[in-house]
Design a protein that fits this description.
- Helix 4 packs antiparallel against helix 7.
- Strands 1-2-3-4 form a 4-stranded antiparallel β-sheet.
- By secondary structure, it is α+β, with helices and mostly antiparallel strands.
- The chain has a domain of 62 residues.
- It has 8 helices and 9 strands.
Protein backbone atom coordinates (compact mmCIF):
# COMPACT_ATOMS: atom_id res chain seq x y z
CA UNK A 1 0.00 0.00 0.00
CA UNK A 2 1.23 3.50 -0.86
CA UNK A 3 1.55 5.89 2.08
CA UNK A 4 0.54 9.40 1.08
CA UNK A 5 3.09 11.45 2.94
CA UNK A 6 3.87 14.79 1.25
CA UNK A 7 7.07 15.01 3.28
CA UNK A 8 8.41 11.84 1.67
CA UNK A 9 11.04 12.29 -1.07
CA UNK A 10 9.73 9.08 -2.63
CA UNK A 11 6.28 10.60 -2.74
CA UNK A 12 7.49 13.78 -4.42
CA UNK A 13 9.43 11.82 -7.03
CA UNK A 14 6.59 9.46 -7.87
CA UNK A 15 3.55 11.74 -7.95
CA UNK A 16 2.36 14.90 -9.64
CA UNK A 17 0.15 16.77 -7.16
CA UNK A 18 -2.82 18.84 -8.35
CA UNK A 19 -4.68 21.01 -5.85
CA UNK A 20 -8.41 21.52 -6.40
CA UNK A 21 -11.28 23.22 -4.57
CA UNK A 22 -12.78 19.85 -3.64
CA UNK A 23 -9.53 18.08 -2.72
CA UNK A 24 -6.24 16.93 -4.19
CA UNK A 25 -5.29 14.71 -7.12
CA UNK A 26 -2.20 12.50 -7.01
CA UNK A 27 -0.97 11.36 -10.43
CA UNK A 28 1.54 8.53 -10.39
CA UNK A 29 3.98 9.01 -13.28
CA UNK A 30 5.85 6.21 -15.02
CA UNK A 31 7.52 5.48 -18.35
CA UNK A 32 6.13 2.76 -20.58
CA UNK A 33 8.12 0.32 -22.74
CA UNK A 34 8.61 3.05 -25.36
CA UNK A 35 9.90 5.43 -22.70
CA UNK A 36 6.75 7.55 -23.04
CA UNK A 37 5.58 9.19 -19.83
CA UNK A 38 2.22 7.84 -18.73
CA UNK A 39 -0.04 8.31 -15.74
CA UNK A 40 -0.39 4.84 -14.25
CA UNK A 41 -2.68 5.83 -11.36
CA UNK A 42 -4.87 8.78 -10.45
CA UNK A 43 -5.83 9.06 -6.79
CA UNK A 44 -8.26 11.65 -5.45
CA UNK A 45 -8.32 12.72 -1.80
CA UNK A 46 -11.31 14.87 -0.90
CA UNK A 47 -11.44 17.69 1.63
CA UNK A 48 -12.37 15.13 4.31
CA UNK A 49 -9.24 13.05 3.52
CA UNK A 50 -11.24 10.23 1.92
CA UNK A 51 -9.17 8.56 -0.80
CA UNK A 52 -10.29 6.89 -4.04
CA UNK A 53 -8.39 5.41 -6.99
CA UNK A 54 -10.07 6.91 -10.07
CA UNK A 55 -8.17 4.69 -12.50
CA UNK A 56 -10.21 1.67 -11.35
CA UNK A 57 -12.94 3.06 -13.62
CA UNK A 58 -10.68 2.79 -16.69
CA UNK A 59 -10.59 -0.63 -18.42
CA UNK A 60 -7.34 -2.57 -18.13
CA UNK A 61 -4.94 -2.28 -21.03
CA UNK A 62 -5.57 1.45 -21.52
CA UNK A 63 -3.00 4.20 -20.98
CA UNK A 64 -3.39 7.71 -19.62
CA UNK A 65 -1.12 10.35 -21.13
CA UNK A 66 -0.88 14.13 -20.97
CA UNK A 67 -2.49 16.13 -23.76
CA UNK A 68 -0.36 18.66 -25.64
CA UNK A 69 -3.30 21.04 -26.03
CA UNK A 70 -4.77 20.60 -22.53
CA UNK A 71 -7.87 18.97 -24.01
CA UNK A 72 -9.42 15.70 -22.90
CA UNK A 73 -9.77 13.04 -25.59
CA UNK A 74 -9.73 9.30 -26.23
CA UNK A 75 -8.06 7.25 -28.96
CA UNK A 76 -9.74 3.89 -29.43
CA UNK A 77 -7.11 2.90 -32.00
CA UNK A 78 -4.21 3.56 -29.59
CA UNK A 79 -6.19 2.69 -26.44
CA UNK A 80 -5.20 5.82 -24.59
CA UNK A 81 -6.90 8.66 -22.76
CA UNK A 82 -5.38 12.12 -23.02
CA UNK A 83 -5.90 14.36 -20.02
CA UNK A 84 -6.00 18.14 -19.84
CA UNK A 85 -6.10 20.58 -16.93
CA UNK A 86 -7.40 18.61 -13.94
CA UNK A 87 -7.36 21.58 -11.57
CA UNK A 88 -10.55 23.11 -12.98
CA UNK A 89 -14.07 22.45 -11.75
CA UNK A 90 -15.70 19.87 -14.00
CA UNK A 91 -12.39 18.37 -15.13
CA UNK A 92 -12.83 15.14 -13.15
CA UNK A 93 -16.22 14.76 -14.81
CA UNK A 94 -14.46 15.23 -18.18
CA UNK A 95 -11.89 12.60 -17.17
CA UNK A 96 -14.65 10.14 -16.29
CA UNK A 97 -16.31 10.94 -19.62
CA UNK A 98 -13.17 9.83 -21.45
CA UNK A 99 -13.04 6.73 -19.24
CA UNK A 100 -16.61 6.18 -20.43
CA UNK A 101 -15.45 6.14 -24.05
CA UNK A 102 -12.86 3.50 -23.13
CA UNK A 103 -15.51 1.45 -21.31
CA UNK A 104 -17.82 1.69 -24.33
CA UNK A 105 -14.99 0.57 -26.64
CA UNK A 106 -14.48 -2.54 -24.53
CA UNK A 107 -18.12 -3.36 -23.84
CA UNK A 108 -20.13 -1.78 -26.67
CA UNK A 109 -17.83 -1.79 -29.73
CA UNK A 110 -20.77 -1.34 -32.10
CA UNK A 111 -21.38 2.05 -30.45
CA UNK A 112 -17.72 3.04 -30.13
CA UNK A 113 -17.00 2.37 -33.81
CA UNK A 114 -19.45 5.04 -35.01
CA UNK A 115 -16.77 6.47 -37.31
CA UNK A 116 -16.99 3.35 -39.49
CA UNK A 117 -20.22 4.73 -40.95
CA UNK A 118 -18.26 7.54 -42.59
CA UNK A 119 -14.97 5.71 -43.07
CA UNK A 120 -16.54 2.81 -44.98
CA UNK A 121 -17.71 5.31 -47.58
CA UNK A 122 -14.70 7.63 -47.70
CA UNK A 123 -12.11 4.86 -47.92
CA UNK A 124 -13.58 3.60 -51.19
CA UNK A 125 -11.37 4.96 -53.98
CA UNK A 126 -14.35 5.17 -56.38
CA UNK A 127 -16.18 7.45 -53.98
CA UNK A 128 -13.12 9.65 -53.54
CA UNK A 129 -12.98 10.39 -57.26
CA UNK A 130 -16.72 11.15 -57.53
CA UNK A 131 -17.52 14.58 -59.04
CA UNK A 132 -20.68 16.65 -59.44
CA UNK A 133 -20.63 15.81 -63.14
CA UNK A 134 -20.58 12.11 -62.27
CA UNK A 135 -23.66 12.56 -60.10
CA UNK A 136 -25.54 14.40 -62.81
CA UNK A 137 -24.63 11.81 -65.43
CA UNK A 138 -25.87 8.99 -63.22
CA UNK A 139 -29.15 10.78 -62.54
CA UNK A 140 -28.38 11.50 -58.89
CA UNK A 141 -29.31 14.80 -57.28
CA UNK A 142 -26.17 16.78 -56.32
CA UNK A 143 -28.23 18.47 -53.59
CA UNK A 144 -28.32 15.11 -51.78
CA UNK A 145 -24.53 15.28 -51.37
CA UNK A 146 -22.16 17.48 -49.43
CA UNK A 147 -18.46 18.07 -49.98
CA UNK A 148 -16.37 17.67 -46.83
CA UNK A 149 -12.66 17.73 -46.12
CA UNK A 150 -11.71 14.74 -44.04
CA UNK A 151 -8.63 13.30 -42.37
CA UNK A 152 -7.57 9.81 -43.40
CA UNK A 153 -6.06 8.05 -40.35
CA UNK A 154 -5.04 5.07 -42.50
CA UNK A 155 -3.31 6.96 -45.31
CA UNK A 156 0.24 8.06 -45.91
CA UNK A 157 1.27 11.63 -46.55
CA UNK A 158 3.41 12.99 -49.33
CA UNK A 159 6.49 11.87 -47.42
CA UNK A 160 5.24 8.30 -47.43
CA UNK A 161 5.26 8.11 -43.65
CA UNK A 162 2.49 6.81 -41.44
CA UNK A 163 3.00 9.94 -39.36
CA UNK A 164 2.15 12.28 -42.24
CA UNK A 165 -1.39 13.62 -42.13
CA UNK A 166 -3.61 13.04 -45.14
CA UNK A 167 -6.56 15.31 -45.83
CA UNK A 168 -8.80 15.10 -48.86
CA UNK A 169 -12.12 16.44 -50.12
CA UNK A 170 -14.95 14.09 -50.98
CA UNK A 171 -18.64 14.22 -51.88
CA UNK A 172 -20.67 12.32 -49.30
CA UNK A 173 -24.42 11.54 -49.33
CA UNK A 174 -26.20 13.66 -46.71
CA UNK A 175 -27.94 10.53 -45.45
CA UNK A 176 -24.57 9.04 -44.45
CA UNK A 177 -23.67 12.30 -42.69
CA UNK A 178 -26.93 12.13 -40.73
CA UNK A 179 -26.40 8.51 -39.75
CA UNK A 180 -22.87 9.38 -38.67
CA UNK A 181 -24.13 12.30 -36.59
CA UNK A 182 -26.73 10.15 -34.84
CA UNK A 183 -24.19 7.41 -34.06
CA UNK A 184 -21.57 9.90 -32.85
CA UNK A 185 -24.12 11.60 -30.59
CA UNK A 186 -25.21 8.24 -29.19
CA UNK A 187 -21.60 7.42 -28.27
CA UNK A 188 -20.99 10.82 -26.67
CA UNK A 189 -24.18 10.71 -24.64
CA UNK A 190 -23.45 7.18 -23.39
CA UNK A 191 -19.97 8.27 -22.31
CA UNK A 192 -21.46 11.16 -20.34
CA UNK A 193 -23.98 8.77 -18.79
CA UNK A 194 -21.09 6.57 -17.66
CA UNK A 195 -19.37 9.59 -16.09
CA UNK A 196 -22.54 10.56 -14.21
CA UNK A 197 -23.02 7.01 -12.91
CA UNK A 198 -19.44 6.90 -11.57
CA UNK A 199 -19.75 10.36 -10.00
CA UNK A 200 -22.98 9.39 -8.27
CA UNK A 201 -21.43 6.14 -7.05
CA UNK A 202 -18.51 8.01 -5.49
CA UNK A 203 -20.81 10.51 -3.83
CA UNK A 204 -22.94 7.70 -2.38
CA UNK A 205 -19.72 6.26 -0.93
CA UNK A 206 -19.18 9.56 0.86
CA UNK A 207 -16.53 11.05 -1.44
CA UNK A 208 -16.84 14.83 -1.75
CA UNK A 209 -16.01 15.27 -5.42
CA UNK A 210 -16.82 17.95 -8.02
CA UNK A 211 -18.66 19.99 -5.39
CA UNK A 212 -18.80 22.82 -7.91
CA UNK A 213 -21.40 20.61 -9.61
CA UNK A 214 -23.15 19.76 -6.37
CA UNK A 215 -26.74 19.51 -7.58
CA UNK A 216 -28.35 17.77 -10.53
CA UNK A 217 -29.13 21.01 -12.35
CA UNK A 218 -25.50 22.19 -12.25
CA UNK A 219 -24.24 18.77 -13.30
CA UNK A 220 -26.44 18.48 -16.34
CA UNK A 221 -25.91 22.12 -17.28
CA UNK A 222 -22.19 21.32 -17.56
CA UNK A 223 -22.86 18.26 -19.70
CA UNK A 224 -25.44 20.03 -21.86
CA UNK A 225 -22.90 22.79 -22.53
CA UNK A 226 -20.45 20.17 -23.85
CA UNK A 227 -23.14 18.53 -25.99
CA UNK A 228 -23.97 21.92 -27.48
CA UNK A 229 -20.37 22.42 -28.60
CA UNK A 230 -20.56 19.08 -30.44
CA UNK A 231 -23.65 20.30 -32.30
CA UNK A 232 -21.85 23.51 -33.21
CA UNK A 233 -18.81 21.60 -34.45
CA UNK A 234 -20.99 19.24 -36.49
CA UNK A 235 -22.83 22.13 -38.13
CA UNK A 236 -19.55 23.86 -38.98
CA UNK A 237 -17.82 20.78 -40.40
CA UNK A 238 -20.74 19.04 -42.07
CA UNK A 239 -23.15 21.91 -42.81
CA UNK A 240 -25.86 20.03 -40.95
CA UNK A 241 -27.78 22.00 -38.31
CA UNK A 242 -29.61 18.98 -36.87
CA UNK A 243 -29.28 18.86 -33.07
CA UNK A 244 -28.08 15.27 -32.76
CA UNK A 245 -26.38 15.88 -29.44
CA UNK A 246 -28.87 18.21 -27.75
CA UNK A 247 -32.10 16.77 -29.12
CA UNK A 248 -33.24 16.47 -25.51
CA UNK A 249 -31.76 17.06 -22.05
CA UNK A 250 -31.68 13.46 -20.98
CA UNK A 251 -28.79 10.99 -21.10
Amino acid sequence: MIKFSPESKFFEAQFKIIKREDGTLFLKLENDAKNQQIVSKIFFKDINNKLVNLTKFLPSGWKIIFSDDQEFSTSIHDKNVKIGDLSKNGSILSLLHEFGHAWIAENMPEVANYSQILENYTRDIKNRSLTLEDLQKSGKNPDDYIEITIYDPYGKGTGGSDNDEVWFSILVPKEIIKNYGKAWADCKRKAWAYAVRVLRKLRKEGITIENGLSDVEQLFKEIYSCLKTYDQYFEKEFKDSSTYFTKDKYL
